[in-house]
Amino acid sequence: MNNRAEVRDFLTSRRAKITPERAGIPTAGQRRVPGLRRSEVAALAGMSVEYYAKLERGQLAGVSAGVLEAIARALQLDDAERAHLMRLAQEANGSNALLRPSRRPRQWTVRPSLQWSLDAITAPAIVVNGRQDLLAANLLGRAMYSDMYADPSRPPNFGRFTFLDSAARRFFPDWNLFADMTVANLRTAAGVDPHDKGLHDLVGELSTRSDDFRRRWGAHNVRIHGTGVKNFHHGVVGDLDLAYESTALIAEPGLVLTIYAAEPGSPTAHALSLLASWAATSDTDTLRASSVRQP
């Protein structure tokens, strides 16, 4: 991905999101652009408008951390957006290679100990990479995401499922929220490793086949997620309101383990028990994840 274009589009989109009122700037007369003007961002960041305009055109090479922090404050970036800006600056300096995940073999095998660990978890548990490929799961996790395993020809992927599979509209009751989150996750991954060909190919495929994806990708939103609550509608057990906790796998750089859990005694806890019974009586070859995935 072109670093200068990424920087330009990201800063422009963040500037458009900040209203003068939110920035504490008095407004007078009609404004021709959404959000703040370049001159207003420059004033808030304590720099000349000429210098800020240069940065917004994508020229971040050699920019100091102090200047980046000033821009982040002026644009009121959240933690995910600030980290994304810093990664774009490192890429402009040619130093982002130090932060990229090491290249793995094309075929990645689930270590037996990792699968045993997943199987020991009594709640749904999955392992996902930055491209949002669902790489591994325990039996309950596979049962929960059974719709995503309907096509055995390729590894399940949250991006393809969300935007190209009609079942996603039923599985995600708040589809727009999940669509936004999925694209923000992919945009964040692109900042971490802008040279990931697999991610480039996925973005190209989804941009070509889905107007919903293409519009969201152009918004340049990023996010950091580690905990929260998600709502699902499973075809067998109905509604599931699940808390989740996500953590990076130290032994597998770039991969994230997510565990879902229901509030004890809740209807979702009962539904999970039903899901476990359904999984236990279903064809295990259909429900158990393949041992080989592309990371």
Written overview of the protein:
The structure is a single chain. This protein is an alpha+beta fold and 295 residues long. The chain contains 15 helices and 7 strands. A hairpin with a 3-residue loop joins strand 4 (227-234) and strand 5. Mean pLDDT is 89; it is low at 288-295.
Cα distance, first to last residue? Answer: 20 Å
Range of helix content: 40-55%
Number of H/I helices: 15
Low-confidence stretches: 288-295
Shape estimate: elongated
Question: How does the major sheet shape up?
Answer: 5 strands, antiparallel
Mean pLDDT: 89
Q: Give me the Rg, rounded.
A: 21 Å
Class computed from helices, strands and strand pairing: alpha+beta
Percentage of residues in strands = 5-15%
Oligomer: single chain
Encode the helix/strand succession as letters: HHHHHHEHEEHHHHHHEEEHHE
Q: Looking across the biggest beta sheet, what order are the strands in?
A: 3-2-6-5-4
- How many distinct beta strands? 7
